[in-house]
Amino acid sequence: xxxxxxxxxxxxxxxxxxxxxxxxxxxxxxxxxxxxxxxxxxxxxxxxxxxxxxxxxxxxxxxxxxxxxxxxxxxxxxxxxxxxxxxxxxxxxxxxxxxxxxxxxxxxxxxxxxxxxxxxxxxxxxxxxxxxxxxxxxxxxxxxxxxxxxxxxxxxxxxxxxxxxx
Length: 166
Fold this sequence. Notes:
Blueprint: H1 3-34, E1 39-45, E2 48-54, H2 63-66, H3 71-88, E3 95-98, H4 101-123, E4 127-131, H5 134-146, E5 150-154, E6 161-165
Parallel strand pairs: 2-3
Antiparallel strand pairs: 1-2, 4-6, 5-6
């Protein structure tokens, strides 16, 4: 690795850590306003800042920030990305999780992708899955790729879905 590449890697890490710090400050303010208890955990995963709101004493209150099937979480993630953009001037790909919702969802979607792969391998025919959000499609695409098959997205939002190919 050249010195330039090492410096770029450090700059990227610093930039992602800065995104995480800005997001954490924004979310702490939001938790205070909403009078919700939660701790903020920051990390960098797969070239993006990852911020989680977690709760020691159960996550019943935090479920308000997840909403039905993650709808509130998606909106909160967009607002947090906008807060980061406002501070940095750069578009953020920050990923937000609340009360482990995305982690559980990722596990379920990986299983769905694996089952679809098994179905395609058994039948030799493509399998079309239900419409999904971009996050959900990405997790399924990754699971399919890890199993050695190919997949693609088709359709228009909000009806865009993953098709697993033989």
